[in-house]
Amino acid sequence: MNRREMLTSVGGVGVAGSVTTMAGLASASENMAGHAAGHAAAHHGGGVNQALINSALDCMKTAEICINHCLDVLGTGDTSLAECGKVVQELETICSSLFKFASYDSKYLNGILAVAKQVCTDCEKECRKHKKHQSCLDCADACVACLKECDLIKA
To answer: In this predicted model, what pLDDT tens digit does every residue of 107-116 receive, in sequence order?
Structure first.
């Protein structure tokens, strides 16, 4: 489905159909994303940095879960995860940039890699301190995996 078809199908739905509209919009969005991914893979073989891209996305996902957990704990008045939350926010930010620069196969990727490796190292150390929190351990593991992928990129 192209953008015009999506807008045409969504445009005629009123307030009563808002739930259906949202489901239709999500479905159309997924279809468009799937088409774009298939198009890129067909022309570029999935990209030269695909493993790094996947690793950065996994880091972003686990970071978001970890940040949410840190906020939940902070909400109870327990500040033991305050530093973890800060470090993980930095991780999420650099991994977003890493994902984008790797996706573009940017000439600046090596510069981003240097920063990403340091942030991943710091985050992994901080998250390992919180052994009783599974989201922290998952984030630390994702950092290790991302570091390995960063090391595989040739300078």
So the answer is: 999 999 999 9
Which ranges in the chain belong to alpha helices (H)?
Answer: 3-11, 18-44, 50-75, 82-104, 109-128, 134-152
Q: From CA 146, how far away is CA 53, in angstroms rounded? A: 9
Task: Dig out the tokens for 141 from the structure.
Answer: 């593991």
Q: Which pTM does this prediction carry?
A: 0.69
* Token couple for 73: 């704990």
Whether residue 136 sits in one domain with residue 76: yes
Please work out, in degrees rounded to the nearest 5, the angle formed at the alpha carbon of residue 122 by the alpha carbons of 116 and 123: 85
User: Domain range for residue 61?
Assistant: 50-152
- Nearest CA-CA partner of 63 in 86, 34, 29: 86
How many independent structural domains does the chain possess? 2
CATH number at residue 106: 1.20.1270.360
Q: Are residues 107 and 86 in the same domain?
A: yes
Are the beta carbons of 138 and 61 closer than 8 angstroms?
no
Are 40 and 112 found together in one domain?
A: no
- Give the pair of three-digit tokens for residue 132: 């009783």
